[in-house]
Design brief:
This protein has about 210 residues and is an alpha+beta fold. It has helices spanning about 1-35, 40-45, 60-70, 90-100, 100-110, 115-130, and strands at about 75-80, 85-90, 145-150, 155-160, 175-180, 185. It has a 6-stranded mixed β-sheet with strand order 1-5-6-4-3-2, covered by helices on one side. β3 and β4 (about 155-160) form a beta hairpin. It is globular and about 55 Å long.
Length: about 210
């Protein structure tokens, strides 16, 4: 039973990381489909759409990001306690410049060149997944999330995705998070901004 449980957890983590990678890169697909004026919805529903309906493609990264946030409840739990964080630094701006590269890639591919787009996207998806940069997704900001580099008393620097706003370590109270990997943690939106009442995790950011 224990082995089966561990296999289930591993599978869930893999599925979650795939979803994270897709949500982080899906904006590339949306921009390309809008640029190419691909009227998929017109074919699907068999009536005419104007160009404004192309904006529906922007729902792809939004919906996939919402699924990422919702399904984070299946990840392992940890908690930050008051006094465990030595340094906190806002990290959102560090990644925006590289993320803007997705726009230039999508705009540089010829309209309706789906083969080239598929190859480019597959390479990018694999790179993002393997390099473990999938945790940064600017769509998180639409849901009120912030990105921080946090140094703990255990000597580790971890990446924290949370709805809380921190200026100094004094602003950090006790709250629960979910572990994406050993160096990346996310706080679910359903936790609200109240202190964590969960039992302490046996894993201490190792």
């Amino acid at each position: 039973m224990l082995l089966n449980g561990q296999i289930k957890v591993i599978r869930m983590k893999i599925v979650y990381k795939i979803l994270l990678a897709f949500s982080s890169t899906s904006l590339l697909l949306s921009i390309f489909l809008i640029k190419s004026k691909n009227y998929f919805f017109e074919t699907l529903f068999e009536f005419s759409f104007n160009d404004l309906f192309l904006l529906l493609y922007l729902l792809i990264p939004v919906i996939s990001t919402a699924l990422v946030l919702y399904s984070s409840k299946y990840l392992g739990k940890d908690e930050f306690k008051k006094g465990e964080i030595l340094e906190v630094e806002y990290a959102g701006n560090n990644f925006l410049s590289s993320y803007l590269g997705y726009f230039f890639v999508a705009l540089s591919i010829a309209d309706k060149d789906f083969f080239t787009m598929s190859v480019v996207y597959l390479i990018l998806f694999i790179f993002v997944f393997v390099s473990k940069t999938f945790y940064f997704n600017p769509i998180f900001m639409l849901f009120g999330y912030h990105f921080y580099q946090v140094k703990t008393t255990f000597g580790l620097t971890v990446f924290l995705i949370t709805r809380r706003s921190f200026k100094t370590t004094e602003d950090i109270k006790e709250f629960s998070v979910h572990r994406i990997n050993n160096f990346t943690f996310i706080e679910r939106w359903f936790n609200g901004l109240r202190p964590c009442k969960n039992k302490p995790s046996k894993k201490k950011f190792s």
